[in-house]
Amino acid sequence: MAVPSHKTSKSNKRARRGHIKLVAAGMSACPNCGELRKSHYVCASCGFYNGQEVVKSAK
């Protein structure tokens, strides 16, 4: 059976897992009000999506 004969060091283990990390969500500016929002989501501040008011804003 294939059994490692030496302990894998922390640096070797972490170098192998270098691609496992968190990425920031894709944020874009709302074309209506200019606030940052997630792409393909309704704007939380003005309620617009794709140029139409989808949700009535509480303002």
Automatic annotation (TrEMBL):
GO terms for biological process: translation. The keyword Ribonucleoprotein applies. Signal peptide: none annotated. It holds the Pfam family Ribosomal_L32p. Keywords: Ribonucleoprotein, Ribosomal protein. It comes from the Bacteria. InterPro entries: Ribosomal_bL32 (IPR002677), Ribosomal_bL32_bact (IPR044957), Ribosomal_zn-bd (IPR011332). One of its GO terms (cellular component) is large ribosomal subunit. One of its GO terms (molecular function) is structural constituent of ribosome. Belongs to the bacterial ribosomal protein bL32 family. HAMAP family: Ribosomal_bL32. This is Large ribosomal subunit protein bL32. It comes from Periweissella cryptocerci. The lineage of its organism: Bacteria, Bacillati, Bacillota, Bacilli, Lactobacillales.
